[in-house]
Amino acid sequence: MWCGRTRALLRVxxxxxxxxxxxxxxxxxxxxxxxSNSPRxxxxxGLGGPLRGDRFFCPQCRALQPPDPTRDYFSLLDxxxxxxxxxxxxxxxxxxxxxxxxxxxFSQRSQTEKDFSEKHSTxxxxxxxxxxxxxxxxxxxxxxxxVEIPEGTDYEMDSQFLMEIMEINEKLAEAQGETAMKEMxxxxxxxxxxxxxxxxxxxxxxxxxxxxxLLTKMRYFSNVEEKIKLKKxxx
Length: 235
Hints:
Number of strands: 0
Low-confidence stretches: 1-36
Strand content: under 5%
Subcellular location: Cytoplasm; Mitochondrion
Order of helices and strands: HHHHHHHHH
Distance between the termini: 56 Å
CATH architecture of the largest domain: Orthogonal Bundle
InterPro entries: DnaJ_domain (IPR001623), HscB (IPR004640), HscB_4_cys (IPR040682), HscB_C_sf (IPR036386), HscB_oligo_C (IPR009073), J_dom_sf (IPR036869)
Mean pLDDT: 82
Shape: elongated
CATH class of the largest domain: Mainly Alpha
Radius of gyration: 21 Å
Subunit structure: Homodimer. Interacts with ISCU (cytoplasmic form); this interaction stabilizes the (Fe-S) clusters on ISCU. Interacts with the CIA complex member CIAO1 (via LYR motif).
Number of helices: 9
Structural class: mainly alpha
Keywords: Chaperone, Cytoplasm, Metal-binding, Mitochondrion, Signal
Protein name: Iron-sulfur cluster co-chaperone protein HscB
Largest sheet: none
């Protein structure tokens, strides 16, 4: 049902998002979930059922295992696949995982576990940074369903929006002094807040085409935000 609807919306073949975005969990593909067969421990060769400690350690010998390639960022950080996230809970989970697998805690372990620890820590960092920001979180949600917005694309932006971006960039180029910069920051922040709210509603309606359009607009304003930061840096 969702498969046909999404293909019709996006006009892209080979996509099969199955599930609901928004406040409810999303299951885009069985392949994105944990595999049915438990891998053997690299150290002792045992199975022993699900791995303890958030599936990081062998239940038999307690050796740290390699990252699970089937886990997505939402699963890793214990979140529903949703555009709406509890950032306080996200931060708590991030800190919890880093206390569990950070390389600092594996200095006396085998080289294999040290290497796995670095990979886990990098993965957790990437997951946290991706899900923390609305833009990257929304893009990642679409990506889970095989929908991506290539860098540098205008995605058929309407001329009115492009004109708005052009005018904002012109105002930014002319802005001088702290007051003017704060005004520009306020304008862009308000635009991003409006777009974020609209993206959330689009995901809740399963309108992936609209979400894609809005996230592309957010990317434009994100570029403006970067220009503002650079302009505020003293020469």
